[in-house]
Amino acid sequence: MAATADDTAQHTHASPPHRGRRRPGPVAMVISFFGEMLITAGVLLGLFVVYSLWWTNVVADRAADRQADKVRDSWAHESDGGERDAPAVYDSKNGIGFLHVPTMSDDDILVEKGTSMKVLNDGVAGYYTDPVKATLPTSGKKGNFALAAHRDGHGAKFHGIHQIEKGDPIVFETKDTWFVYKVFGILPETSKFNVGVLAKVPEESGREKAGHYITLTTCTPIYTSKYRYIVWGELVRTEKVDENRTPPEELR
């Protein structure tokens, strides 16, 4: 049935008057503002974490790969023709050799001089020159070949250091020699100021006499730099590098 005029009038009078939307009070506006600020801060923090833990690894790995190629190309050039018997240049700015630790990483970790952020941020390991001077294995002298690398970000070459166990091999590769070490001691946590672990006879390692040692150091716990994680190894033998650069059995 069609609606009558009376029905329409009654319906019109029954409808509530239209009112505009109430504006939020000052407290609500402040809460909303700070909420948006927290969301923005969270996004920025997330981007920073991605940059620190992923992108810096990408950039560092690229830099390390370029440097590694230079070292291997240099070795190949020194071994060509009449330069085959030329003495190896170990203390070059491009790197002195490669560290191999199968239980920690599959990487061939380039080793360079120094442990500054400028060096380590390129995704390499560096040997100490300060406050303790590392003894290079190529010198033939007894001492401690002490190294450092990042555990997270910037290549994170020592990220898996906690996977190393006593008895595991550590191999240092140079142009003409493989230096094969065996892990004998691990210190899961020590002060960042404990330089005694880098000594020629490393303190707290259990060794009391001079020998041919290697020490790996990095930050701990993961994603912090509060303490240092230490791994010690001792040289068990050396092998001459053949023309095919056949790795020692520990790396096969």
TrEMBL record:
<dbReference type="InterPro" id="IPR042003">
    <property type="entry name" value="Sortase_E"/>
</dbReference>
<keyword id="KW-0472">Membrane</keyword>
<dbReference type="InterPro" id="IPR053465">
    <property type="entry name" value="Sortase_Class_E"/>
</dbReference>
<feature type="region of interest" description="Disordered">
    <location>
        <begin position="67"/>
        <end position="86"/>
    </location>
</feature>
<feature type="compositionally biased region" description="Low complexity">
    <location>
        <begin position="1"/>
        <end position="14"/>
    </location>
</feature>
<keyword id="KW-1133">Transmembrane helix</keyword>
<protein>
    <recommendedName>
        <fullName>Integral membrane protein</fullName>
    </recommendedName>
</protein>
<feature type="active site" description="Proton donor/acceptor">
    <location>
        <position position="150"/>
    </location>
</feature>
<dbReference type="InterPro" id="IPR005754">
    <property type="entry name" value="Sortase"/>
</dbReference>
<keyword id="KW-0812">Transmembrane</keyword>
<dbReference type="Pfam" id="PF04203">
    <property type="entry name" value="Sortase"/>
</dbReference>
<dbReference type="InterPro" id="IPR023365">
    <property type="entry name" value="Sortase_dom-sf"/>
</dbReference>
<feature type="transmembrane region" description="Helical">
    <location>
        <begin position="27"/>
        <end position="54"/>
    </location>
</feature>
<feature type="active site" description="Acyl-thioester intermediate">
    <location>
        <position position="219"/>
    </location>
</feature>
<dbReference type="GO" id="GO:0016787">
    <property type="term" value="F:hydrolase activity"/>
</dbReference>
<keyword id="KW-0378">Hydrolase</keyword>
<feature type="region of interest" description="Disordered">
    <location>
        <begin position="1"/>
        <end position="23"/>
    </location>
</feature>
